Amino acid sequence: DNCCCEVRELEWDGARERCCRLTLASSVRGSLRRAMSTTPAPIAEITPPWVTSDVAWALAGVCAWSSITITCWQIYQHLKTYTRPVHQRWIVRILFMVPIYAFCSWLSLRYYDNTKITLYFDTVRNMYEAFVIYVFVSLCFEYLGGEAAMLAALNGRMNVPMWLTCTCCMRPFPYGLQFLRFIKQGCLQFCVIKPLMAVVTISAVATDNYKDGDFDPAGVYFWVALIYNTSIGVALSALLLFYAATRDLLAPYQPVLKFFIVKAVIFFAFWQGFGLMIAQDIGMIEDRGEVEAGQIAMAYQNFIICIEMVLASIGLLYGFPHSDYKVGGPQAGSPEVLKGVAANLKNTLNPKDVIDDTIRNFSSTYKKYARAHVDNEDVVEVADSDPDTDDDGDPTTGKKTKKGKKRYSRMSLPAMENEDPPDSYV
Hints:
The structure is a single chain. This protein has about 425 residues and is mainly α. Helix content is about 60%, strand content about 0%. The chain has helices at about 1-35, 55-80, 85-95, 95-110, 115-145, 145-155, 175-205, 220-245, 255-280, 295-320, 340-350, 350-360, 365-375; strands spanning about 380, 410. It is globular. About 35% of the residues are buried.
């Protein structure tokens, strides 16, 4: 009996073991069957930002080409009524800002994913931005008759320290020869530094040592941005100082509207670029797949500039109207200077006057140059700010002047030989 019981227990144990094996095998087969029949979860697709889409590029193109058309028409009108070359040469150079800005920004937006191509277009745009600041100051100098006439008009005036001109912590200083030279140098240094920084940037990109938005001091971008922002800050400060000193003298030429339009284009481009860099640095703009955060920030910058150029082109129509220079207009000169549009355009694009002025303002002979303009028979050129006078005679003497020549009036000028720069500015 005991033997029979042991045999039964062994048989039951074997049966239970076989049953467990079958159950486990069945469970594994069921799990595999369910795993094979289950559809895998879809992987989330990373979509690029809207600003890099074809729709955004098309919208930017409409705005860019609209602004180019408006401004090119205005440039043609100025060249067709080229009665005051000494003014209109600088005005046309300012107007070229809109086509260059719009076209370069539009193409940069198209090639947003190619850093090298985008960098070339942005370099051209930014270099012309530096040039426009100098051109605008030079136009204002011509409005007032040049350095000698401005010295006479500003004789005895002193700067009033204020926060708007960043002179609140300085002592009052005279608006003399050194002040005018500082204004020109403050604008010209940006025209020199900007191309140099462009060369450094292009070289760094070619050697893969440049990355947009990288504020690491060990990188090239940090130092380029630091030098560039310091330089443009000096240029804009010089522009503010100049406006504060001459706003009443420039009143016949509507300086507020002109200052606002030119500075708005430059300021908006500068500050929105700076804001996008900060947004990228703090993580508000991040990489989207293969598109880097720096490329996205640059795409936003170019798209916004294309939109802004439409407003700028309309503002320039009112800020620099060509109707003032038609024959018989309030600022028109002799009709004998009217030439072909192509010849007038050639005169506008000739950089000789810019090169000469740059060398003169950074030369040690600048004081002799200004003195020579004063000592030339004690005659100083004075801008014609009276829209009711024409170029047929001198209102002070009644004598006829030669056609195509400017009127001159005698003025007493301050001494300049021993004038030293004040301690309150360098």
